[in-house]
Amino acid sequence: MSYPKYDVLYPKVRQALSQERFEHVIRAGEYAVHLAELNDYDTEKARIGGFIHDYAKERSDKDFLNEIDKKKLDPDLKNWDSSIWHGIVGAEFIRDELRIDDEELLNAVRRHTTGDVQMTTLDKIVFMADFLELGRNFSDTDVARQVTDDSLDAGVAWQLQFSLSRLVRNHRAIYPKSLLAYNHWVGGK
Ligand code: FE
Ligand code: FE
């Protein structure tokens, strides 16, 4: 289980992303450090998790669909889109291209788009850092940041409530794993 240093990953992530998204992942890495400090977690590993989470976000649909076949991932994934793929399938590109085989980091990337019933501290840090990095500015950002500073678990519940509500309002489908995560973290099941 290993992963390269931030400085080694930096140019590879830089070339994979637009300027705007690159700035998002830098800020997510910084916010992950903040949350790691509050939760006694390895700050460098947290920074890397935040920094790589959207590495695959600008890949084509064709790339993702080929990768699902090539790696024999769950065929149901093909019924979804890049908003789900860039985490679950994106982890495959990260393993192969960024040479990260640390499953804890790969799982945090996989789970950042959906949440999950079981989430490690790193999963929660990356999930929340993506949502709360300082470039984010939705209504109640400050409330969400405070809730998450007080309790990482409460932050996960807050985000799931926020994101699933938005999907329902916009008549969007909800990935089953997200619904299970919602039932667990918000509904107490
Ligand atoms: Fe993402
Ligand atoms: Fe993101």
| Annotation, overall tally of beta strands | 0
Q: CATH H-level name... which superfamily? A: Hypothetical protein af1432
**Discrete helix count:** 11
Q: Mean of residue pLDDT?
A: 97
Key terms:
single chain, 189 residues, mainly alpha, Hypothetical protein af1432, binds fe (iii) ion
In short:
This protein has helices at residues 6-16, 19-38, 43-52, 61-70, 82-88, 90-97, 103-111, 121-132, 141-150, 152-169, 176-185. It has 189 residues and is an all-alpha fold. Residues 24, 53-54, 130 line the site of one fe (iii) ion (FE).
Give a verbal description of the structure:
The structure is a single chain. Helix 3 (43-52) packs across helix 7, helix 6 (90-97) runs antiparallel to helix 7 (103-111) and helix 7 crosses helix 8 (121-132). The chain has helices at residues 6-16, 19-38, 43-52, 61-70, 82-88, 90-97, 103-111, 121-132, 141-150, 152-169, 176-185. With 189 residues, the chain is mainly alpha-helical. The protein has a single domain (6-187), classed as Hypothetical protein af1432 (Orthogonal Bundle), CATH 1.10.3210. The model has no long low-confidence stretch (mean pLDDT 97). One fe (iii) ion is lined by residues 24, 53-54, 130.
How would the blueprint of this fold be written?
Blueprint: H1 6-16, H2 19-38, H3 43-52, H4 61-70, H5 82-88, H6 90-97, H7 103-111, H8 121-132, H9 141-150, H10 152-169, H11 176-185
The site of one fe (iii) ion (FE) has 4 residues, from loops.
